[in-house]
Every structure is written in structure tokens, then in C-alpha cells.
């Protein structure tokens, strides 16, 4: 997942006392790349409350990731080996990324709108880019995810030129830079236009609402941020004891709700 500058457009909403609701939210090879600017949407955290995306926008300059290729591409595997929950995550990184060389099938109902995505992992993170891509692809291919509802088809590709958006797994410092002017405080993730930025610290440690279930939190994080890319805004807890909606900011807590990583947890294949 190269080193240039580009302008990203970020929409910022008010939430809580400060009224800040954030709509924070792809190329292979060694050349430069620029991701499209767009409305930004902030992930859940302990610093803001859930709100809908804002139609307003602001311009911010940030570096475009430099990408290097992983080993030759191969088809995505259905079986995923989980990454260890406890690993050391650097506070910041070089802003250069390894492109996952993994392709997957089109997932979702025929006739639904198709979006292609690729995956990149910052070089100094202790994760294999291809393995991360398989984990993300497994989550988004689950019938309980966005592809099961009939509105969307998603396809994992290894060619960034074919991707409609890119999912980056990055260090906290890099996420903070690429999500600016939206503030992610080293602990939040974001979506901005064609970029979905996943915070590596959260990927490793999860969130309080998920306890020791780091795998479940990762599913939530992917579904939540990709949900922003698909146009969904933040929502609140629907009632005591009910499942938290996936677009609730569960990283900062679920209140009276129960943690839930899926858009439609009752749906099955």
C-alpha cells in the first residue's frame, strides 16, 4: 500500500458537547498514487458521539502511500489463520505500504452494485499483507455483512487500478496524518473518500466492548468503516439489551446494548 501528497476532502459533523460527528472514512508497484478525495467519517472512539455524515467538506493535504508488491498473487482462501491478539504496534510508521497480492471472487447477489477494493498494510506493522487481505475478504463475504443484503457486491482485487477503494491497515501516527483534519487521537480509524484507514493498535488490541474477542472487534471495525464507504452514517443504541448496530460507534462503548460486529447478525447463507 508510495510517497506523494494529495488533497483529501473530509466532512465533519458535530457530536456531543463539541458537536463533532466525523464522516472519516486505491495501485500496486513502486510508482506514485493518488486516492480520490471524499467525505470523511470518523470511527467510533471515546471522544465523540454517533451522528450522520455531513454534506459539508474541508480540504486537507496528506501524503499518498507508497506501495511495494508482496509475493505473486493467489486466490483468496476461505480459511483464515487468525493473527495473534497480542503484538507490539509501533506508534508511527514510514507511510509506505505493502500491497496485498490476493484476489477474491465477486461476493453478493447478481444485479447488486459492484465495488472492488484492495488491501495495503504499512511496512513496519507485524502483519502479512496477504493474510490481512484474506481476513478482511472473509468478513466482507459473510452473509451477515454488507454483501448479504442484496444492495452490494464486493470483490477483492490485487490491482489498485481496478479498485474503487483501498483498505489500509496502518500505524496510529499514519492514520492520524491521513485522516487529518479529522482527529483520530492515535486510537480511532476513519474513512475518507476512496480510503478506509484501519488503526493498527485497535486491530491488535480491540476495544473494551469486545473484551478478549479481538477477532470479533476486527470484524466490527471492517464492517463499520466499509459501511461508511457505502454511505452509512452513525446511529445509536436502539434499546437496553439489544444488539448494537454495526454503525454505532462501538469502539467507545455500546451503552445499554450488546456488542455486535455485523450489519445483519440474523442473516445466514
TrEMBL record:
The lineage of its organism: Bacteria, Bacillati, Actinomycetota, Actinomycetes, Propionibacteriales. InterPro entries: DUF3152 (IPR022603). Residues 87-254 form the DUF3152 domain. It comes from Microlunatus phosphovorus (strain ATCC 700054 / DSM 10555 / JCM 9379 / NBRC 101784 / NCIMB 13414 / VKM Ac-1990 / NM-1). Residues 30-92 are annotated as: Disordered. Residues 33-46 have a biased composition (Low complexity). This is DUF3152 domain-containing protein. Transmembrane segments: none annotated. Pfam families: DUF3152 (PF11350).
Amino acid at each position: 500500500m508510495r510517497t506523494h501528497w494529495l488533497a483529501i476532502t473530509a466532512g465533519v459533523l458535530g457530536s456531543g458537547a463539541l458537536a463533532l460527528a466525523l464522516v472519516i472514512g486505491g495501485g500496486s508497484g513502486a510508482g506514485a498514487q493518488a486516492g480520490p478525495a471524499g467525505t470523511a467519517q470518523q470511527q467510533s472512539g471515546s471522544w465523540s458521539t454517533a451522528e450522520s455524515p455531513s454534506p459539508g467538506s474541508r480540504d486537507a493535504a496528506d501524503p499518498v502511500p507508497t506501495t511495494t508488491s508482496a509475493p505473486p498473487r493467489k486466490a483468496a482462501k476461505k480459511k483464515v489463520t487468525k493473527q495473534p491478539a497480542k503484538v507490539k504496534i509501533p506508534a508511527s510508521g514510514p507511510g509506505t505500504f505493502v500491497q496485498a497480492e490476493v484476489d477474491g471472487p465477486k461476493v453478493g447477489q447478481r444485479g447488486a452494485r459492484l465495488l472492488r477494493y484492495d488491501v495495503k498494510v504499512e511496512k513496519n506493522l507485524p502483519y502479512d499483507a496477504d493474510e490481512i487481505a484474506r481476513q478482511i475478504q472473509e468478513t466482507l463475504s459473510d452473509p451477515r455483512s454488507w454483501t448479504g443484503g442484496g444492495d452490494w457486491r464486493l470483490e477483492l482485487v490485487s490491482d489498485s487500478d481496478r479498485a474503487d477503494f483501498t483498505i489500509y491497515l496502518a500505524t496510529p501516527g499514519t492514520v492520524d496524518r491521513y485522516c487529518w483534519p479529522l482527529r483520530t487521537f492515535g486510537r480511532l480509524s476513519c474513512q475518507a473518500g476512496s480510503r478506509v484507514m484501519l488503526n493498527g493498535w485497535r486491530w491488535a488490541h480491540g476495544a473494551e466492548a469486545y473484551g478478549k474477542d479481538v477477532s470479533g472487534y476486527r470484524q466490527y471495525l471492517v464492517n463499520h468503516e466499509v459501511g461508511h464507504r457505502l454511505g452509512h452514517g452513525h446511529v445509536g443504541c436502539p434499546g437496553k439489551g439489544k444488539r448494537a448496530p454495526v454503525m454505532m460507534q462501538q469502539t467507545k462503548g455500546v451503552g445499554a446494548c450488546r456488542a455486535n460486529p455485523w450489519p445483519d447478525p440474523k442473516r445466514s447463507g
